[in-house]
Amino acid sequence: MTAKSWHIEEGKPYPMGATLTSKGANFTLFSINAEKVELCLFDKDKETRLEMPSRRGSVFYGFVPDVKAGQRYGFRVYGRENAEYGSCFNPNKLLIDPYSKKIDGKPSYRTAEEMAWFRPEDERDNAAVAPKSVVIGRSRFNWAKDCRPEIPWGKTVIYEAHVKGFTKQFPDLKYSGTYKALSDKRVLAYLQELGVTTVELLPIHYHLDEYHLQQMGLSNYWGYNTYSHFAVEPSYADNPERAAAEFKQAVKALHQAGLEVILDVVYNHTAEQDDKGPMLCQRGIDNTLWYWHTSYGSYENWSGCGNTLNIVRRDVTRWAADSLRYWAEEFHVDGFRFDLGTVLGREPDFQSYGRFFQVLYQDPVLAGLKLIVEAWDIGEGGYHLGNFPQPFAEWNGRFRDDMRAFWSWESGNLGAFAERLAGSSDIFNHSGRRPSASINFITAHDGFTLRDLVSYNEKHNEANGENNRDGHNENISYNHGVEGETDDEEVLLNREYTSKALLASLFLSNGTPMLLAGDEFGNSQQGNNNSYCQDNPITWLDWQNESHVLQDYTQELIRVRSQIKLLTDDCWWEKERVQWLNADSSPMTEYCWHNRGSKAIQIVLDDEWLLLVNAKRSRQLFNLPQGDWEISCVPSEKLNYEEPGKCVVKHMGIWILHKIK
Q1: Is 160 helix (H, G, I), strand (E, B) or coil?
Q2: How confident is the model over 278-294, as pLDDT tens digits?
Q3: pTM exceeds cut of 0.90
């Protein structure tokens, strides 16, 4: 068979990436400091190099006739190397397209010898071992009448899950651990019955395992080491060649079930890691354009992952926005959660109305989606909770910490508890923002699960291979007297009470609740609070040992939440609609708020709902407010009425009463 003979023509500078037409494909690549770019086409073992014939501004471009879907390609970039400023051009290293929508292969660097093939100083040609970008054709997926559920923020209940871990051990599931599993009727029915409205998936962008993990034979389970921000991770597909179609089917099925899909995305760093990491894409295209550097030419590491994307640069901003728009339009996703969101506002100091935020705010596709940020990075002045602009909501770490301290450590800080329960107005009630801007959570993928939070005083990350040095040391957890698993019935009962109190605080608070998958039935990770590299039963949800008691309680809490207008209206609590009472049913005074010994409060919402809060591990007497109240949701046994209007709760928890009209 005669090898193909390629030639390249003028082409167009936009759209970016490889764009297939009926006559061939247009290719583009942006680089400010490159002097020459070669497009490399691969046919079996044959490589054809074509110099990009045109340049406009930072964009090199050209058109190649007769290119079809499935064509493998990459780039070789030429420029003057300047170590002082961080340049590292090396045309001997094949680079993928940062707009790659499909990639053939993943780089292997389990040893120093393998890593050398991907290092910028290495002069050997690595095309034989380097991954290649793949040209894709127009999608033929049948979306039928798919439409976004568009759940109002006030009615949103988020369920954070990992595609593989959520379904890998789901009972009797044919395609467990895959995108297909998310389309299974039983999985969909479970989510519907639980009552959540929105599934937030950990990263499904094409990602790599870090060098140190490959050396140890481990993998990046969470997926926060993105290689291509346009390509679907194939390892979660039943058929890796059809990964994009399988994910689309999952989104379509979730939408048909009335559920939204939010993607956790990483635009703060890439898989090229630190100065000793591999050169795979951005580093070789234009290192000083793509990344933040110190005055010495090394990488700024505000991400904690070795490098930090310079998202404020115009071309990089467009790349990120193009990526997000692609997922919104091509895959119909309903929103995004941005990992280490402070990086996205660095110029280099954080700017609430920086370039990236302005671009998303003005984009007609992205501005209407649910946008959520993690409000910190590890750089100086990196914590900016409450400082992000509309339309972003923010993970509220203050909610997590204050609620954990209130229940696990019995802090008795009623003021902090009340502030978080009411929506954290001290943080978010400004600039026209609403309570839904606060994403309330007790646990997330990073840290203890709820069960481990009440079962361990210390982290147990030995399986990660870092001698238990990794992960957070301050978890605000309490093992209730025994570290880890136990058969002691009293300890187990007290753990259940604390777990239910934390769950009740989550779902009865003003703002947007986020539940970690598995917390509703007591899933454990054996005390591992940094399970990013554990792709095994440590992280896969343990459906076989699910606690139906906790599961039923969670379901009931979500049901009751949907009936309380002060929670679903997404409005700030005003004194006309909320009464804060002590255990004797008198209005809270300054003394009551600061008396950390009482640990009890009553909250009346719209003169219709009553919350009895007991934050101590012993009985509490409540004199109820005037009216006839019936129990609506209890953490265990029902109320014990000593006489009309007086009741006793025997343990820690929140009791929900409804007024009889």
Answers
A1: strand
A2: 999 999 999 999 999 99
A3: yes
Sequence-distant (≥ 6) Cβ neighbours of residue 436 within 8 angstroms? 153, 154, 156, 393, 511, 512, 570
Strand order across the 24-30 sheet = 18-20, 24-30, 59-65, 54-56
pLDDT value at 82 more than 90: no
Give the dihedral of Cα atoms 342, 343, 349, 354; nearest 10 deg.
Answer: -80
Based on the residue annotation, tell me whether 374 is a catalytic residue of this protein: yes
Q: Can you tell me the distance from the alpha carbon of 172 to that of 186, in angstroms, rounded to the nearest whole number?
A: 10
3-state secondary structure of 496: helix
What is the rounded CA–CA span in Å between residue 33 and residue 179?
40
**For 229, phi and psi rounded to 5 degrees?**
-90, 5
Query: Residue 455 burial (CB < 10 Å; 0-12/13-18/19+)?
Result: buried
- Give the residues across from 61 on adjacent strands: 28, 54
Tens digits of per-residue pLDDT, 15-71?
Answer: 999 999 999 999 999 999 999 999 999 998 899 999 999 999 999 999 999 999 999
Query: Do 236 and 308 touch, CB atoms closer than 8 A?
Result: no
Verify whether residue 339 is a known catalytic residue: yes
Phi-psi bin for 57: left (phi > 0), alpha (psi -120 to 50), beta?
Answer: left
Query: Which among 315, 339, 394, 519 is annotated as catalytic?
Result: 339
Nearest to 107 by CA among 97, 96, 98: 96
The identity of residue 652, as a single letter, is: M
Query: In whole angstroms, what is the distance from residue 165 CA to residue 237 CA?
Result: 13
Q: Is 189 helix (H, G, I), strand (E, B) or coil?
A: helix
**Active-site option among 374, 452, 519, 535:** 374
- Please name the residue that has the structure tokens 């894709």: 136
